[in-house]
Each structure stands twice: as structure tokens, then as C-alpha cells.
Amino acid sequence: MPERIRRTRIRPTSISTAITRSSASTSTPSYGGCAPPRPGLGRQGGGSIVVTASYAAIKGVPQDPIYTMTKHAVIGLVRALHGSLAREGIRLSAVCPGLVDTPLTAGGRERFRAAGIPMLDADEVAAAVEQLLRDGEPGTELVVSPGKPAVRYIAAPLP
User: Fold this and answer.
1) Could you say which of 10, 71, 79, 126 would form a disulfide bridge with 54 (CB–CB 3.0 to 4.6 Å)?
2) Is position 67 annotated as part of the catalytic site?
3) Cβ atoms 47, 37 nearer than 8 A
4) Would you place residue 58 in the very low, low, confident or very high pLDDT band (cuts 50, 70, 90)?
5) Distant-in-sequence, close-in-space partners of 145: CB < 8 Å, separation ≥ 6
6) Which of 31, 55, 67, 153 is an active site residue?
7) How far apart are CA 144 and CA 124, in angstroms?
8) How far apart are CA 9 and CA 129, in angstroms?
């Protein structure tokens, strides 16, 4: 767990149940991550669930359509459930980071740098998650870009 999350003043039980990770190969972990904490958060009088999406959830990545599809599913889940969960006092939101420098991306790190693709530090993403856990509004989609403040993404209204 990133250092920033370990230092937070949010109750550890909230953190352990609220932070979920989605998989690059399936969106099921995000949905599964919403269901188990729901009863516990309800008994506490509410809380926050933050799921991990990606830039790919906002804008398709032609080089990896399957990853794009699964991240779109994560955002769809947030958009579909945040209202009903909010009525139970549970804030569901998503963090949408760009490319993060992790062991998973380490093999391509030099190629990304050579191509001019900036990478986030895991602590930058952890800070955005912490922000959402503390005071994120239900349904927030928080975009995290290297060297910039995290910003809320607002989807265009339907015509």
C-alpha cells in the first residue's frame, strides 16, 4: 500500500474495504469490490468506495481496446450505482490516472520516456484516492495527470 494511504487519518477499516482495484483483463473485481463493503459501510453510517479506472475510461486507447473496454465498464459501474449508494450514505467514485510508474509498467518505462509519455508516481494516485475517500462527491471521476492537480471529469450531457 502506498505510503500516503498508510499515513491517512481515515479509519483503517474504511481504507481496507474502500480501496478496490480493477483488473486490466476484467471489470469484475471493481463490481466485486463494491458489494462486500456495502453492509459494513451501511452499519457505520456510510463511507466511501473508490474504484480505479484510467485515462482509458475517458478516452479510448486504440492500442489496447480490451483494456479500454474494461475501464469504460468501471466508469459505467460508478455512473450506474453512485446514486443508489449515496442514498445509503456510501460515496462511490473513481480515480482515473494516466500511466503509473509501477512494477507492472517497469518493462516499458524507457520506451514510454523515449516517446515523451509522462508517468505518474504511485503516491500521486494515492493522494487522489485519499482526497476521494475524505470528501469526494458521489459519482466523482477524478482524472490524475503527471505534474498537474487532479481534476473532476464531467461527462458531456446527452443531446
Assistant:
1) 71
2) yes
3) yes
4) very high
5) 98, 118, 120, 151
6) 67
7) 8
8) 13
